[in-house]
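Here is one chain, start to finish.
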Amino acid sequence: MEHNISKAVIGRLPRYYRYLGDLIDADIERISSGELSRIMQVTASQIRQDLNNFGGFGQQGYGYNVRYLYEEIGKILGLDKTYQMLIIGAGNLGQALANYVQFEKKGMYIAGLFDNNPRLKGTLIRDIPVRMMEELPAFLAENHIDIVALTLPKAGAIAACQILMENGVKSFWNFAHTDLEVPEDVVVQNVHLSDSLMELTYKINHR
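Its structure:
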């Protein structure tokens, strides 16, 4: 069933998860779709439709148990598992990702950082040394990696992606200014910062 779920629904799940986490922090135990609608600025019918894709989770006359729904959405998002992540590109963005402590709270652990700048070799980012790209194949042979974040320029990202795929990596979080061409069994989530900024400038000029 989940293979037919739209990208729009999947894209809203992290937002539900974030808002439910805030409700838990506020000691709220249950909530109706109407109340959640007002908080999230999403229609109650949309919330019910989204959650019905995964079984619904609500009870007539009761609403949703906040913690249960939070945990179930976490499972749907795969947050009940742990992941080993590599960061390729130890510049400003790569270092910022490495320093983002929320990753561990989501079960994602930085296993290594790689770069091709010799001046960065051995630099410690949160006690993780920056390694050189020529060390990457040997590192991959000795370590299971679930996700690779690419924070490289376009050409470097394409070359690194090829090396990583040849060494068995199947999941990429791509910050490079390019859309990677990968086989069907490889998953890519693109985060093009300039595209997001241009969407903002569009909204500013058409509000």
